[in-house]
Design brief:
Helix content: 25-40%
CATH architecture: 3-Layer(aba) Sandwich
Number of helices: 9
Number of domains: 1
Distance between the termini: 18 Å
CATH topology: Rossmann fold
Order of helices and strands: EHHHHEHEHEHEHEH
Shape: globular
Strand order of the largest sheet: 3-2-1-4-5-6
Low-confidence stretches: none
Largest sheet: 6 strands, parallel
Radius of gyration: 16 Å
Structural class: alpha/beta
Mean pLDDT: 97
CATH superfamily: Isochorismatase-like
CATH class: Alpha Beta
Amino acid sequence: MSGDLGFPDPSATALLLVDLQNDFIHPAGAYARGGATAADIAALPTRLAPLADAVRAKGGWIVSTHFTLVPGKGGEPLISPHLKAVRPFLTTGDFVSGGWGHDVVDALQPIDMKVEKVAFSAFYMSRLEWVLKKAGITSLIVGGIVTNGGVASTVRDAHVRDLDTVVLEDGCAAFSEQIHRTAIDALRPVSKVASIAEVATAWEAA
């Protein structure tokens, strides 16, 4: 664990679930159909669900980010070139706003606030900063995927906005353990890092 954990005001704290969507994780989702799966990623909802329940029970918020592919002409999704190069299987209907694949997996429902995103950082061209301020949220517990992408970018952007963050080192995952571990270590200068169990203990004491 890096940094002292403490949640003096649970109502000002959110569990931020980064991109834990059906199209990423569910066996019937877009990534599974394209063969892009990882056991550590698939295991996250089960690991995170008890903490989500604990956050709800004390009046904290559950906020989810939703990677979104915006349809263009004819419904074809607008996909950044770098993403198209590594995920050529993405197609019409994947990650479309309001669709089943776009939503958070059932194990982590219900969600208090859902925020669409179009890039790694959930703060980039989104309403995340606005809804956090409106809800009075100043502290984030962050879990989700991928550690080196959406999680890392979002946590760094939270840092420059003076939001207090705790990254769940076993509540995030990447497509390899080495990539995950490197990304976690790189976040230590800008965020507290702790296990789900450590955060759960601190949360119960809040």
